[in-house]
Amino acid sequence: MADEIIHQPAARLAALLAAGKLSSLELVQACLARKRAVDDRVQAFNSCDEAAALAAAQASDARRAAGQARGPLDGIPVGLKDAIAVEGQPLTCSSRMLANFVSPYDATVTQKLKAAGAIPLGRLNMDEFAMGSSTENSAFRPTANPWDLTRVPGGSSGGSAAAVAAGELPLTLGSDTGGSIRQPAALCGIVGLKPTYGLVSRYGLAAYASSLDQIGPLARTVEDAALLLGVIAGHDPRDSTSFQAEVPDYRAGLAARKGPWRLGVPKEFFGAGLDPEVSAAAKRALEFYRQHGCEIREVSLPLAAEYAIATYYLIATAEASSNLARYDGIRYGHRSAAAKDAIDIYTRSRAEGFGSEVKRRIILGTHVLSSGYYDAYYLRAQKVRTLIRNEFAAVLRDCDALLSPTSPVPAFKLGEKSADPLAMYLTDIYTISVNLAGLPGISIPCGFTGGGLPIGLQLIGRPFDEAGLLAIAHAYEQAHEWSQRHPAL
Amino acid sequence: MSTQPDLNLDYVANLARLALTEEEKREFARQLGDILHYVEKLRQVDVTGVEPMAHASPVFNVWAADVAGPGLSVEAALRNAPARRDDTIVVPKVVE
Amino acid sequence: MKFEAVIGLEVHVQLATASKMFTRVAAGYGEPANTLTDPVVLALPGALPVLNKAALDQIIKAGLILGCSIAPVCKWDRKNYFYPDSPKNYQLSQYDQPICLGGAVEIELPGPARNVMGEHKKIPLTRIHLEEDVGKLTHGAQDTLVDYNRAGTPLMEIVSEPALASADEAYAFLTSLRLALVHGGISDCDMEKGQMRCDANISIRPVGATRLGTKVELKNLNSISFVRDGIAHEIRRQLAVAAAGGTITQETRDYDGQTGTSQSLRSKEMAHDYRYFPDPDLMPVRVDEAWLAALRATIPEHHFDRQRRFMADYQLPYTITSVLVPDRGLADYFEAAARLGAAPQAAANWIANDLRRELAAAKLPLAASKLHPAHIAGLVSLVESGVISSSIAKEVFVAMFQSGEPPAAIVDRLGLRQSTDTGELEKWVSAAIAANPKAVAEFKAGNEKALNPIKGAVMKASAGKANPQRVDELARKLIG
Ligand SMILES: [Mg+2]
Ligand SMILES: [Zn+2]
Predict the structure, then answer these.
(1) Fold of B9-43
(2) Into how many domains does chain C fold?
(3) ipTM exceeding the 0.85 mark
(4) Same-domain status, C430 and C463
């Protein structure tokens, strides 16, 4: 059984569950068996409460037997990035700071998963506090790319992407602040969706950069992403930035929303620094849409292309420097044994608890907010952000979606960029502006390099038009077989 | 922003309550110098009359009614505390 | 050289709300440690703030009461600093767009005598903003204990202009501010419970100078009297420094109200760099005219306006208004009695003296009184119409207070109606004249006071029911 189900899309698993051909217990056991078989190499999991997952699976089976199944995700395991709170479970953010922290409450998305009968399974590795693009910044261990274990899975939601690609979990949740769902999805050959800012509650997601963070699904297919998004989306009174929007039936929208669409291609996103194989794959995808009657128009996003990364690193680090101030070793988290007074607790606990990328960003963010620098850095970045948002809005008036590569390069080698933070930051060049503008973006597989590494295609949509974005992505996916390839592990 | 970004690491590290090693200071000075140099490019953008964007979408008046609900039990509130006594959190003596 | 003092106050006032400023766990005082927390209060990973609408209503109402202009748009900022009582290590506050700007607190300075109203003046305010309170630290010999129950309580910071000239003015400022906020239902302003806290910035300068001198911040002034004493002490200290040719150093000092001394708190080597920035987790607030109008409709009459009205419209003496007006319930009670037709001065006397005395003796709040304004009105009219005498009225009052029975019923039940039956009165007066020959003789000799023992004897014989006016008339007639 296990071999047949480990690479099945969640929608297929849901159908098997509904037809009584599979039990949730069997499914969870298969995932755990797969994890035991491969995770010592992939290292996607930080921790996993197997007993709780098995108990939840049995409860799901009992519901189903009683005719009370709660919906398509009832009984399906969903892995969570280790930055999303689950009551009674560890929440580490892959940081020494929170190595022993157990959350006393559920994130809103966790509550929604549970209410839908889905089974939270596993705490997945990430760059520490979501700061990174390779998952190498995890304080515990790097996650490996299932397609090539010597390469990174992308980040920061690298564990969430690798677990799906490796067949350990059918669905996971990640968070995306500058590309942290889409880029690892691209590098791992799966689907990753960053929803419009405000569509999914952030309550219970350990904040990195509050005005940019968004939780979203990682999945094997667009349909699976639609299913999971349908469960986690919607207004949350506990998140003041959560939007009052109707949640449509995203899965039904996949077939209902038909093209042809008007697709914009930002010319700057196909410029210098783009790997030729990635470029070729994205252009083939563009050709597919053209052949299917879509109107392809070249558009220009000069500000987004040139200034998004600089803008992002000022805003994100400023917010992070304040968001991460709460990790002080007082109420929870690592407290230095060497601390002699209250000031000591702060400086030593934080020095011992945080890794260097986190320290670097806290220092940068503190600097850009400090007296004398605020206007030149932070305030100016917020203004440029306005211009970038306006630029996208203007282009999206005439386009249903924009199309670009997700990452300029396929999965790079572990250690290749870790000594050069700026080079690492530049790998987010196509994804970061989407967060600045608050737009939805999805990465879907669009081919492989000659060396067998997955390539991702990014589609950027209009605010709160996830249904349209998913339909456009679905049309491409249905015509290609990329999602049926699996890494040999 | 000057062309020679002046980052006072000791000052900023103190504000951020981070004890840095000498090696970290050397490394950060170089890396953050590069990054600050890179972000200099924002000076090229004309932002005259542009409203700063503090939120992804301009929504006003988000609030809740003043109805008290349940909180955490003391046990749940303090379960992660590094040091506790008499249902309070213990820190080394705070001097003002 | 002659010096003058310049004082500015920063007053923190907790708002009376059921839940905290940015989360819905209960706000409260005196609960066991760390029982009023939730993920937001403790700043657990992932927790997010949500504004308390009632706290906004309260501060806007406070602003309207104090004549501030209410900002059409305000926002929330993070004030970043590390301290163990601050769970997030930033305080949610308002930096450059406070919700209330300007306004003033009207104060009354001590008058020339207790029964004479003192001078009034208006102390301008700079701003009022909304923020959140911090937790409570208890310092022991070895370590410090932290309780987060208070953390996140809605807190209003009221900043005055440096426009107060003396400790007495500061005292009057806080007294008046407190009344305005208590009457408005904004806060209970109990300084002992920390619901109202005050820091003072004090400097001196040569009389006539326009530039402010070096200021000293005085902290931990935890009663209104300590504020007055602490400021007076600090002004004396600065004057002494100046007289000795020294210079004042900018510092924060801690005033100990028990010993009446102050000491310098270790001054921070580095200036604060709070790195304020707009909180991305909270949306800005827009205030429209309809919202303001709705709140305006709930504002009570200002206490000084009411006092002036009581003196002008009801002809009440200043001393009585000084008792009635500060207690909004008592003043409302008085007005209710007056509306029922009671003679205002008599009603005010009953309320300010007898009612307060009985309530205090019974340890009852006004709200629990069985005696209602209608009782007062009834009693006053019984006295005015001569049905009972003032001294009988005292007796009736106590009975009413205890039973809640209407005064007329008590008078009837106990047969206390004043006698106007001339035959009965003549009997009592004749008997009194017969029994007091000495007084009669003295009266006849021209001593008016000699009539008193005779009248007293009549009152005694009649058990107070004789109408004193009629007794006086009859006695003169019968002696004469
Ligand atoms: Mg703190
Ligand atoms: Zn304050």
Answers:
(1) Histone, subunit A (1.10.20)
(2) 3
(3) yes
(4) yes
